[in-house]
Amino acid sequence: MKGKSLLLTALSVCCLAFGQAKYISHTVDEKAQAKDLTFLVTFDKHDVNANFAKGDKFSTTMRDVNLGLRGVIGFDGSSAYQPEVGEALRYNVEGNVDPHQGTLILWTAGMDYNPCDAKTDGAGRGNIAIAHIMTNDGGKWIEYQLYEYGDTVYFDWRCSEGPQGWGNIGRVAIQRTKIRKGEWHQLAATWNDARLIFYLNGESVSETALPAKVRLSKGIQARNNAESFIGIKSPFYEDKHKFMTAVDDFAIYSRPLTALEIRNQYLALCKEKGNVEIQAYSIELNGVNIGRNDKIERLEASFDFSALPKEEAEKLKAGKLKVDYVLTAPDGKKQKGSWTFAEGDCARILDGLNQVGKYTLDTVCGKEKVSASVERPDFSWVMNGYGDEDEVPEIWKDFALKGRNVTLWNRTYKFGAGPLPEEITAYGKPLLAERPKLSIDGVEPKWSA
Fold it and tell me: Full-prediction pTM beyond 0.85?
C-alpha cells in the first residue's frame, strides 16, 4: 500500500507540473465570480457537488463520492473527474440551466488515447459521452449531448417535437486534429432558439441554425424530475467508460456568451498568450447595401462591448461611451472621427468606400485600442446592365409547344399520353434506343393525357 501511495503521489506531481506549465490556477471562489454563471463544478475540493449553483448544488447520483484517492489532476493543477465503470454523475436542472439559451464550458482530456486519432490500437473507440443535458417538462423535452466519436467531438440539440430523424437535429462538430493523449483542452458551446456555436480553446470552429421545429419547443422549461438532469460523463449510447476521459471545471451560463467573452476567458487562463491579447471589445466589419439600386460603398462596423472594464461599461450604460476612430483606405488616405455608443446601439456605418483593396479601422476607447480590417472586392460588375436586354437569347428562340411535342435548341421531345418522352431527336437524329418506361410492381401504368 505504501508503494502504491508513493506512485500515486509521484504521478500527481508530474501531472501538476504539466498542468501548471500552461494554465493559471484560480481559487474556487474566484472561479465562481464569473458573470451570469448558473452552475459550476470544479472538482477542486475532491468532491463532485457543485461549487456554485442557482438551483440544487448536490449530485443526485454521487453526492457522497470523494475523488481524493483517484489522483486525476486537471488542467490547472487541481483535482479533476474521471469516472469509474458504472458511474453516472448527474444533477438537477431547475435554476441551473435554461434549455432555450445558455453556454456550456468545460475542460476535457483523453488520458489513455490520442483524441486526434480516429482509432486506438487499430479499433474505433465508439461514442464517448462527455456531457448530457436533458430537460423534460411533462413529457416534452429538449436535450443537449456533447460526445466524442473518432477524432471528432459533437454537440447536438434535439427536442421531442416531430419530425424526428436526420435533418431534424441541430449539430456542430470539431475535429481535434492536434490534440494528443493527456492534453487538456477547452470546449465551449452556446445555444439559443436559433443557433448553436461550438468553440475549441477559445476559438469559434463550427456553427449551425437549428431546425424550424425549434419554434414548437418554446414552452418547455427546466423542471426537476426523474427524466431531467445535467450529466457529466453520464453514459449514453454505448459508452461504458472503457476509455479514460477526464473532465474539469464544468460551467453553465444563463445566456450565450459572445465570441469575445469566450476568447477572453480562455486567454485569461493561459500563462503564455504569444501575440494574442485579451481585448476589452471587438469589431466586425461587413459591407452593406439596401435594395437593388443602392450603391455598394458602405461599411458597417459592429462592436461587441461585452468585455469592457467597469468604468467604460458604466459609460455605455449611460449612453456616453466615446470611441475615436481612424479609417485607412487602400490608397492610404485617412478618415477620422468619433462615435458615442449606448447599450443596444453598437453599430456604425461608414460611407463612400468605393476603392478596391484593404480598409483598416483603428479605434481607441479609453485606454483600449482595437483594430479590424476588411478586403473590399471589385464590384464594378454590379448593376452593369448585362443580361437586362428584352430580347430572348438565341438558344431559346426556337422554343415551341405543339400538342404533345416540345421543340427547343435543335431538339424535339415527343410525349405520348404519359409524363416521359417517347422520343427525343437532336438535329433530326434519335437519341433514345427505346422509350423510357415507368414500372410499378412490374406493371407499366396506363396513362391518359
Answer: no
